[in-house]
Write a structure and sequence with these properties.
Radius of gyration: 22 Å
Mean pLDDT: 89
Distance between the termini: 27 Å
Order of helices and strands: HHEHEHEHHEHEEHHHHHEEH
Bound molecules: guanosine-5',3'-tetraphosphate
Largest sheet: 6 strands, mixed
Strand content: 5-15%
Length: about 300
Amino acid sequence: MEELKSIQWFPGHMTKTKRKIESQLKLVDAVAILLDARIPFSSCNPDLRSIINNKPRIVVLNKCDMADPAETKRWLSLFRQKNIKAIALDCKTGKGLNAFIPAVKDVLADRISSWNKKGMTGRTIKVMVVGIPNVGKSSFINRMSKQNRAKVEDRPGVTRGNQWYTIGKSFDLLDTPGVLWPKFEDAVVGEKLAYIGSVKDDITDTEHLSGRLLEYLRDNHSSPLCARYKLKSEDIEGLQGYEILEMIGRKRGMLISGGETDTERAAYMVLDEFRNATLGKITMDKAVDYPDVRI
Ligand code: G4P
């Protein structure tokens, strides 16, 4: 854990992003907050709530194809309890994407009915998509554009920057202006972000990270770990992560000259297999641990 604290966490950009988001907020009707379904708490920028202030919002738990479905349900129910509109989807298969526009309309129901009363029926709904790097913003916007392909109409008087995307007939998405970093200062959060690959590996020690991940998996998700690497839970009890890594490398025949285990190769394999859910659909942030979640 200590070692991870030494990682350079891209300091200083938040003020710029905050200003950019605030200045564009007045152009949109709502904000879609993309979170990683495997770490809904850790993938949320801690300042976001104060930045978006009282703008209507909808939480999108993305990458739910890689999260534990039961845990995703718990998160959705927690958000429901808090009166926060939330949906789960995955941009890999497109599952759940159809629920997005109805969910936004639901959040904006009062506003839409007042537009209709004023004769502004069919007014374009504009939504800002926000989320930390790698959470799937581009994938989400691409998917939405494909599934709702429509002829792009000329709208006189509207200047479009590169970040605006037209979705269907009367729906526009605006990509996050600037880069919204997660809560890097918290070591536990930083570690989870590193496990899922939100932090570039060239700034972390891969073998150390993989070792920490193996300890976490041994303590919290022992069955899928043991099944995948043909380990016996009693054999890895009490071991250091690095020792588990060596054991896995040996079992997989990953050797370097002199008969030593190629732990670096093993480390990349373990991280890859965790990141693409080969090790199982694992949610690291449990809803029960965040009863006071606010977004
Ligand atoms: P960003 O704009 O927020 O930075 O994220 P982006 O869409 O670039 O997505 C980051 C990575 O996450 C991409 O993988 C993307 O394919 C993957 N991804 C996005 N949404 C989902 C999802 O719902 N499920 C799964 N399994 N993956 C998702 P990549 O490896 O960086 O690129 P590539 O393999 O797509 O080329």
